[in-house]
Amino acid sequence: IVSPSGIEDDCFIQGIDTDTYSVRFMPRENGIHNIHVKFNGVHIQGSPFRIKVGKVDADPAALHAYGNGLKEIKTGQKTDFIIDTCNAGSGVLCITVDGPSKVAMDCTEVEEGYKVRYTPLVPGDYYISIKYDGYHIVGSPFKVPCTGADLAERGAQETSSIVVETVQKISKSKQVGPVLPLFKSDASKVASKGMGLKKAYLGKQNVFTVNATDAGNNILFVGVYGPKGPCEEVSMKHTGRNNYNVSYVVRERGEYIVIVKWGDDHIPGSPYKVERVRQLRIPPRKELALPWSFTCIANSFWLAAPLEEEGEIKIPTMPCDNRASR
After folding, report:
1. CA dihedral in degrees (13, 14, 17, 20; nearest 10)?
2. What's this model's pTM, rounded to 2 decimal places?
3. Which of 82, 155, 163, 288 has the greatest number of C-beta atoms within 10 Å?
4. Which superkingdom heads the taxonomic lineage of this protein's source (predicted)?
5. One fold for both 60-166 and 187-278?
6. Contact assessment for residue 35 and residue 24, using Cβ atoms and an 8 Å cutoff
7. Is the distance from CB of 38 to CB of 21 less than 8 angstroms?
């Protein structure tokens, strides 16, 4: 159970009956609490569940802040960040900057919420607190390192603040249900391999794997697009530690594109252009026309046969004295 400030609250689980449990917890903050319910490490349907605690008008948990002004900054350069207040109701927004010097700061209204601009004058660490109706938003306070030369006298600890009475804002999408968490991930570190990224056989399961173990946490999106639109059958299974098995079936001739995204970003190589291979078919027990031959090296072989039509070829193996097969 994660509180609006990001702290994990304790909960008490008690068995009621076979495969039935009750969960109790005591919230200590107002706002949206996220309840994560997992079975064998995988979220159950609907998880994480969002419940609202306390006052319903203003919702600090619905706010999030982003921008260069919350990352790394330099002295003498004006920087900014956005506070998104869509679907959070109206309330009192308080921004406080604590650091080695005071900062000139202003706040203006923008479409998605409010833009805060400030200019640091002394290098060091600045701590930016963003509160909504007295409660920290997710991620607050933010630690922002500042580099550069001293442009003002350094103080022990200086505080600059600004208070804004917000107006209610609704996003264009008018999303009122659960919002996606802010993921920290790097799609460039996702690796994918398998024959299903190179060739697609008609009517067969074409498979490939996706390894996102070192790419942080996010949502995997896979799509297969053919000559007549999206592929009808695509399945994906999580095998643990952000590893996935993906399979799809194509039923139409033509070119296919396989798209693999980790969150909003394509993984390396995506989109993949897949070569469509016609399924080989031969009537049962049909004999090959002579002459025919094949060459076998290790466990790979090439077969040369004057077939009148394409088909699937199965060659039974027979044990030899030298423990090979023929």
Report:
1. -10
2. 0.39
3. 82
4. Eukaryota
5. yes
6. no
7. no
